[in-house]
Amino acid sequence: MWRESLTNAWESIMSWIGPFDYSQKNAVLVPVATLGIGGLLLYWLRSGRKIKTIDMGDGWWGAGQRPPKGKEDTSIRPFKIETSDKEIEDLHQRLDRFRFTPHVEGAAFHYGFNSSYLRKVVDYWRNQFDWRKQVEVLNKYPHFHTTIEGIDIHFIHVKPSYVPHGQAVRPLLMVHGWPGSFYEFYKIIPLLTEPAKHGLNEGDVVFEVICPSIPGYAFSEASHQKEFDSIATARIFHKLMNRLGFREYYLQGGDWGSRITTNMAQMLPQSVKGLHLNLVFIATQGLGKMIRTMLGAYVPWLVGFSREDARRFYPFMQKNLFDVLRESGYLHIQATKPDTAGCGLNDSPVGLAAYIMEKFSTWTDKSFLQKDDGGLESKYSLDELLTNVMIYWVTASIVSSMRFYKENFSKDPRIHDRVSVYVPTGIAAFPQEIVHVPRAWAKDVYKNIVTYTYMPRGGHFAAFEEPKLLAQDIMQFVRKVEQL
User: Fold this and answer.
1) For a Cys-Cys bond, which of 261, 275, 407, 433 suits 253, CB 3.0-4.6 Å?
2) What's the whole-number mean pLDDT along residues 426-453?
3) pLDDT of residue 199
4) pLDDT: is 321 or 42 the higher one?
5) What angle (nearest 5°) sits at the alpha carbon of residue 408, between those of residues 406 and 411?
6) Distance (Å, whole) CA 232 – CA 214
7) What b-and-e string marks burial along 118-153, b requiring 16 or more CB atoms within 10 Å of the CB?
8) Which residues are tagged catalytic?
9) Is residue 261 classed as helix, strand or coil in its secondary structure?
10) Could you give the CA distance from residue 384 to residue 461 in angstroms, rounded to a whole number?
11) What does the DSSP assignment read for 38-77?
12) Average per-residue pLDDT in the chain?
């Protein structure tokens, strides 16, 4: 159809310029033809273009056969975290059998978790850490289970305790990553649900917050089938929000949460009012990016980099190759044969703690590599760090959480960059994040960036480390979206 239109347009143009002599034709032909055909092409592209989306599809991840349609359990069931004397005694017995490995002198955290500091952590864990008390802390927010696509999905759902008459409450789905958990959001939840009470004075923006556990993490059941990836998770979380009665909602994520919420925006953009991220995944390969990278070191403004981008991005090889290689050894294991290392971690609480807590050191601040204690207690308490470890321990979920890498990296990762995100997007760029993605690069995928903030401090675990900064940025973003 459009080819016929172009042919007819060309014939019309030629018949119009027919009476002109040769010189007149030269003067008129090129601009008229260019404008005419170009205009038709532009009209065709705009009128015919549809926003490309990820196919939602469907799935079944439970054990055995899927029940007949209409027979699946769609109930939402209250859930409470519990512990027992047996569980705690087993933990203590294992901690008592901790076999110390002397570290290399002057190693700090360069070789991984410093074993001398690990001895201190184990001593605190065994003699002072109160798991029963932390279970009470975890249960201060309402927990639920619901079955979606054959597996039980765990989530917390926190509503404001008081909403002034006429005040709109925005639903916000927040998704964690690895090696975090829903517990990462415990400090930011009250800031979002009751901002005025916590001195934020942002009474015009109030949220009810839903924090699910990724299937295979914490109290969400793991998939019983292969190929459970971020797209399947995105679909399940859309179904969760629909089951809770929401048709439009905001999304927030970092780490795997960033990938999952981005997939949600790519899958059902009509349901996503806004997407806020504190980590952006962007493909860095390609000639264009290589040229921009080289030019940006000398003339950053020419490739759309700000001075702050240049400061965070360069020297490129150090920050984007050597640092990333040093911090990504875990990724290669988990993306290939996760069960081999995972089975050992699942059997040893000390091994599990070292493996998880080491990430909370250098992913929070790269300079913590130089510290004998990894700088851990300068940003978090041991109770907070061990509570996150305990969530993995008592649920025996470390192996299934590691498998999530294999299921995602076994597929072509470019699928995520081939589908652009058109929903309003906010990006909080924390200076100690593993990699920095300039706004100019983020725009390659996120086409509607409403806010892009260079955060003054903080690293990978933003909600856990800098809850107030992150909450303020989310509110600023949502306020702008609501004014669009």
Assistant:
1) 261
2) 96
3) 81
4) 321
5) 100
6) 10
7) beebbeebbeebebeebbeebeebebbbbbbbbbbb
8) 255, 405, 460
9) helix
10) 13
11) HHHHHHHHHHH-------------SSSPPPPTT-S---EE
12) 89
